[in-house]
Specification:
The chain is built from 6 helices and no strands. The chain is mainly alpha-helical and 163 residues long. The protein has 2 domains: 108 residues, no CATH class; 45 residues. Helix 1 packs across helix 6. The chain binds zinc ion.
């Protein structure tokens, strides 16, 4: 049973802890001054909060499942149409195929998607996507790590906290 608010609340608390550690490390000179601590903090918060609810993508009645059911085919249509310049009909067809794959291939609740391996996989995918958009290795790897961390917070809460 998905508990979006509870998972996002725990993600916000975890992300604030990470930002405090980041600012502390920066103030102590552990992080070199060339790094943009504001950008790292912002991406860290967004990724941890996203990761803290992402595992419930495998729950068909969870809001995050429904959001990604629109986002994934939409992204495929955009990539096909804008980047690959495939024409509107072929791009829409790709979106429909993506929707069918997303709906039919999603494992049942609390199977593979609710594992640490999946958290590392999603973190890696996010790092690769962000690197292709922003080109910053540090920001991409940091964001991927933060997404995986938020993911692990969700798994820990599912396992040890009764909500
Ligand atoms: Zn869960």
């Amino acid at each position: 049973m998905p508990y979006m608010k509870e998972h996002i609340d725990s993600g916000i608390i975890a992300s604030l802890g990470v930002v405090l550690l980041l600012v502390f490390a920066y103030s102590r000179g552990i992080i070199p001054t060339g790094y943009d601590v504001f950008a790292l903090s912002l991406f860290g918060v967004i990724m941890i909060v996203l990761g803290s609810d992402l595992p419930d993508i495998d729950s068909r009645n969870a809001p995050i499942h429904k959001i990604f059911q629109i986002l994934v085919p939409g992204a495929i249509v955009l990539i096909s149409f804008v980047m690959l310049k495939l024409g509107i009909m072929l791009s829409l067809a790709h979106g429909i195929v993506a929707l069918v794959f997303y709906t039919k291939l999603m494992p049942s609740h609390r199977q593979f998607v609710h594992t640490m391996r999946a958290g590392l996989l999603f973190g890696g995918v996010v790092a690769i996507l962000l690197h292709s958009v922003f080109g910053s290795f540090v920001l991409s790897v940091w964001s991927g790590l933060c997404l995986s961390f938020g993911y692990f917070v969700h798994l820990a809460k599912d396992r040890w906290v009764r909500i």
